[in-house]
């Protein structure tokens, strides 16, 4: 029943411990709403037919100017509705408090949002961008703040959402029921890149998660639902051994590179990687540079030194933030794209699309 | 221009005058809500930064604030008396009282200017330009932002009120208002009283609630 | 002088036009010719018609922006425009539809035209203020739209700080424009309130007023008390942009959430500014075409006022996930429910009014029927989104978008178009084509359903609003929605054409074509300049269908 | 007309008395503010302000002689002001999950650890129990 209704209403998977009870209230509320609206419409429609002018001419006694429903009916209707609303409110408020107040002993992660990316800091000082690694089956509490404007942290499959306000620390918590990859969306309008300010919650089995925290490159597949996300290439388990290019692909997605760099030549916030390797690019402030491993490494660690002309200086430095080996893997990945034909990337000086 | 003329849509002058007065009251209600937004911000920020607000309020000149309060109360009283004089047919007294009230209003603005100047001297500017070294902290900055906004908006109302009072003075000097013909005069005085009422609340909030 | 009759002239009329036929003064459309007699008029009917023209223009403009947005959303990535262009268009859509169309729509057009006639007055209490309101509106809309050309605005119509204070677009101009529009709203509201209080015809008690008047009166209260708060808040945003006053700037210790409090203190009641007049239209329609008094006049009248008062209590339900305190969330959640109770009372009363009526099925009635469904469903989903835990999932997704479009489009536009048909005869003295009316009405309804039902599902599936690109799994619902939007736009365009055709070639209308008992129909087919030749004396209620038409006229003594 | 005539019958001393009352209340409020009564300060000074404005409304603006509908107008407006202030204050006072007053932002671009440390601090104090003070100055209250 739950599953049927969930699918009928297009609700996402119920992947957090709270999701199912919230959905139950959802079904209750929506079904009542639809029945109520339908009832009113059907009764109204029936009256429209029954008491239409043509029929009244043949049945003049049906027309009664003074006809009113009895008072008890009105009172009962209002009272019933009031009770219904109070019930909704009571359940909703209880669940809301549960959503807002994290249980003791939750695993804590700090989240910083900025235009247009999510950054996470873990208790031991580990960091990641875009991909939030959490242990499955354990409450996770996020403390969120923003560096610029208001964002909102939303994971549809967990039924949680919390605005991320600059100058404040808001919190949100969830407990993923199982390991998997769940989408993060920004739901508070925050500018040009609002709709690409996405990320993933990557819930790992507790053992895997501990290993990940210790800095071990799992390389292991992460099982979970697959969304067609063109910008995330490898978020589900590949069957074969991961090679360097695959690792780079995965690293590029978890580090958030693909948030700004496309791999198929589409113009975006940063230069596309398609056909980038080995090409000669114009630099901001004049000059040219050959894109090779050295240039890419430099751009990752100190992106503002040799800026590709025509792109905004938005890229953060990855110095100290990227795992050893990931740099090389990402370079290998970029290298593998050298033969993908880039569409003419005319770095538009206007402030549209990717390059504001 | 005759002051008492019946517009087409009204059936009697009395009704027309009642409509005008009621309309002005309704307008004043709208004005009160305009200030409400600023008072709302004041309340919220004061609850966030109680200590800094109290310290910053201490920097305001209580003497000037109090004198200004007395000035406005007095001008309110004289305007009310002017209406009384108009009703009683004492035209010269009425115009004298209105002129006195105008003087009060101008004095109020001058003192306000003096106070602004004192703040500027101390480096207290609105917004990012704030550069006072003693009263640091966001609470103090917000307090003075609100101070400038509230007193600024109030000063705009004082100026509009003064224009209205000038019109009343001119009218009563020319004998346009008289017993039974005081409806428009009364409208002008009502606006001036609003200015007074707002200040009655501004005064404790910005001057008295200090460290 | 012959063109612009001084309104203080003797109403019996000695103007050149009257001399031709002294017993029949010319109707308001013919009383004074030339563009100047329109632009300088103080006649509430002419001002209403001028508002009509400009507001329909705004609806068209907002509609074009809506179509652009929907077209862009056909594909998950770029379709026709860039992200920044998209952001500007959805902002313009919101700003134009809310501030330039929705808020002034029914009050300033139909309220202006009908309120004085309905209460038996010769004009509004302050006719010149009314004209001023029109011009202030024109200035405000010009300034607002100038911003669109001047770099556009990309904040969304909600202007949330700190984005609105940091983005590089002409937020300043729009804020100023909306402030000016607010002045127009306040002037109109003031006029309506005073008119209702002081200009009711002799013998008309409060409970003798048509329900539309109650609705407009209640709307005016909200406009009057809520608008200044928004005006000042936007001034603060504008000041921040030019003088860095930073009232809400977290860098200076400000709190952006307070902006949201002030913003929604206006913008939540503003929802009732938009829907209350629509409810008034519906109340009139349903009584006229059922030839019955409302099953409870008192319930509808009081619930209008109730909505106006309680409507102020619910603003916080826009902020459940904004970082507001849980206590406030509880309070606001509970208070929001009361508005729904009042709305529900209205819905029950309308439905019960149909019971044992004598129903003529015309275009306005069909619009009433659509309204009944759309408003009930939209309103109930409103209660749903005010339920705290559900709102956490729905907040800022397409569910919310669908919900408020059910109220705004399904409610207000439906009623606006319904009113345009219902009062067409009295406004222009012609009849529209009933067949075309029914056809367009049905298309409007289905266009609407196809546009917005998929958006409910999109919201459930988690698609956030204001998304330029979206995950491809949302695509097919977006395509359906876009198709519906085109259907809806086409249907509305056809409606407009139908009415324009009727304006020129329609059958001449009789004074009371619907057989209504409401007071606005007691005048000539097209009312004369001051509505009535002699002030009416009312000795009956507005829905006394037990009286024959002659008796009804006799007890109104209008003419 | 009866009402305005009634008003005209007031003697000028009537206004003098009202003025004296206002001045008296002003002086009282000023003196009380020097007494520093702590939390009572706010309540008392606002109460006095309310009394003063009521006096102005009733006697200078002659609300006392007006009809019921006119009297309701300022009452209604003030009720909504109270609503706005009350619910905004409830929000600020009731915020439980983060510091009541905003923390300063770091300069953009600079990944300062200060903010992060503050985040942790706020988190610890603000959320897990001792939230009421959040480590920021909020003793006293209004």
Describe the structure.
- The complex is a heterotetramer of chains A (356), B (211), C (559) and D (142).
- Chain A has helices at 2-8, 19-50, 53-58, 71-100, 206-213, 244-254, 293-301, 326-336; strands spanning 107-114, 117-121, 127-129, 131-135, 140-146, 151-155, 160-164, 170-174, 180-186, 198-204, 280-282, 288-290.
- Chain A is α+β, with helices and mostly antiparallel strands and 356 residues long.
- Chain A has three domains: 2-100; 108-227, Cupredoxins -  blue copper proteins (Immunoglobulin-like, Sandwich); 240-356, Cytochrome Bc1 Complex, Chain D, domain 2 (Orthogonal Bundle), CATH 1.10.760.
- Mean pLDDT of chain A is 81; it is low at 223-242 and 344-356.
- Chain B is built from six helices and no strands.
- Chain B has helices spanning 13-48, 50-59, 62-87, 91-121, 138-173, 183-208.
- The mean pLDDT of chain B is 91.
- Chain D has 142 residues and is mainly alpha-helical.
- Chain D has five helices and no strands.
- Classes of the chains: A alpha+beta (356), B mainly alpha (211), C mainly alpha (559), D mainly alpha (142).
- Chains in contact: A-C, A-D, B-C, B-D, C-D.
Helix content estimate of chain D? 55-70%
What's the SSE pattern of chain D?
A: HHHHH
Distance between the termini of chain C: 26 Å
Rg estimate of chain D, integer Å: 24 Å
**Main sheet record of chain D:** none
Q: What percent of the residues of chain C sit in helical stretches (DSSP H or I)?
A: 55-70%
Structural class of chain D: mainly alpha
- Residue-averaged pLDDT of chain C: 91
User: What portion of the residues of chain D fall into strands of 2 or more residues?
Assistant: under 5%
Please name the CATH topology of chain C.
Cytochrome C Oxidase, Chain A
Catalogue the unreliable spans of chain C: 1-22
Q: What is the CATH architecture descriptor of chain C?
A: Up-down Bundle
